[in-house]
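Box 3.1 A note on notation
Throughout this textbook, protein chains are presented in two layers. The first layer is the amino acid sequence; the second is a token string describing backbone geometry. Keep the layers aligned when reading.
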Amino acid sequence: MSRARVIARLAARDLCRRGAESVLLFLALAVAATAMTLGLVLHGQTAAPYAETRARTAGPDVVATLFPPDGRSLTAAERGELDSLAARPEVVAHSPAFPVTWAAISAGGVSGVAQVQGRDLQAAPVDRPYVTSGHWLGPGGGVVVERAFAEALDVRVGDSIALGGRPTAVVGIAVSAALPPYPQLCTLGCILDQPGWFTSQPGLVWASRDAAMSLATAREPVAWFQYLTLRDPAAAPAFADRFGDGGPPSGRAELDAWQDVAARQAEQLESERTVVVFGGTLLFILALATLAVLVGGRMGDEVRRVGMLKAAGATPGFVTRLLLASYLSVAVLAAACGLLAGRVLSPRLVTRSAGLLGRIGATSVTPADYLAVAGATLGLVVVAGAVPAWRAARTSTVRALADAGRTPHRGAILVALSNRLPIPALLGLRLAARRPRRAILTSVSVAVAVCGSVVVLYAQANLRSEREPGGGPADPLAVQLHTVMTAMSVLLAVMAAINLVFITRANAVDA
């Protein structure tokens, strides 16, 4: 019988004999592999829906915004800055300049702030919002609400809302790629000078030009937006950098490339990915600590078995491979399950914004992802188990067969400190002192779990205070991030519990 076959049979029997321990080890490694898979595949999933939205709405390449420098209304001459930009040779099409102001909005007991953009009744050459429900602005008045903002306000076509204190009918709900949807709209600039508006998250509302102009006040003056299409869309960032350095109080227009708008669309997913990567890193640290404690404890429990194998002619290398084989087999299975779980869970974490059209593309695990997850999982086993297994294999045959316990090291300082303690605390302290590296590892693992949980709780509280102003519309980004953070907290707690089980068992074997 070949050595590989002998190792496989002995490792299989070892796994069966320690079933509960193997299951816990599998869970620890599978959780870490799942978190790593999610961090790898949650990337760029909003690119396809934004591209479809941009194509179906004639989305601009550059958004030009002209804010009043001192709160007053801009003159026609000052608005000529937008005309000069539209006349640049790089620009092949442009929309008219649209007046924009900000006003209070309320619907169904939910109040917030709206960015009201005055539009024409006919479609513009650039930026033609796609109406998903109802119809576009007509002679009868009314407003069209951006879809993500409408969902946050829970309004539908035919509902009546109060805009600037005036009752207004919602005649349509639409989607546009020109500006980021709610709640990221103000990442491209807003004027929020009313009391209590500073932390608000405005949403976009389209109204007639006259209606938008009539809502302007001294504190919320009219700004002007114009949308540009370039000959080379890829050159939009360079165009914005070249001609857009200015803005208030210089009186020059601010320019934002379509790539910046796309980045705002992907903000939610990138935030979720950051949480998953952070939590996955902590989970891998805990998995490493768990493996180190498990291997160390099992080496102390299998000294006599190592002696019998060496007495039968096994070399230290054979013994090391045998001791690692069972862990590596569990790691291979855990990596496969983690990759499968990550692929299944990732579509549930990727939530398309209501401000986009189309569907999220199918998440895929690339060959590089397979190699990264499998290599990291197997690497954990090798790093945590190779040294203890080799040390056990190098133990002399006579000493291993004797299977004598480790002679306690009686330090004078430790004895003096523990003499006056209760008996359980005295024994516990001396047992911990016999394995100082394990005690340090235990402390570090618990600290990592507590640190991760505290960071997640702090981030949740911060999100609640920053993104969910009292009485305002719900923030879909905050809701989804709360869900992901809660899931990571639960996984950290599970991993810490598994670690403590192995630590307790190892200490019991030592005792």
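The mean pLDDT is 77. The radius of gyration is 32 Å.
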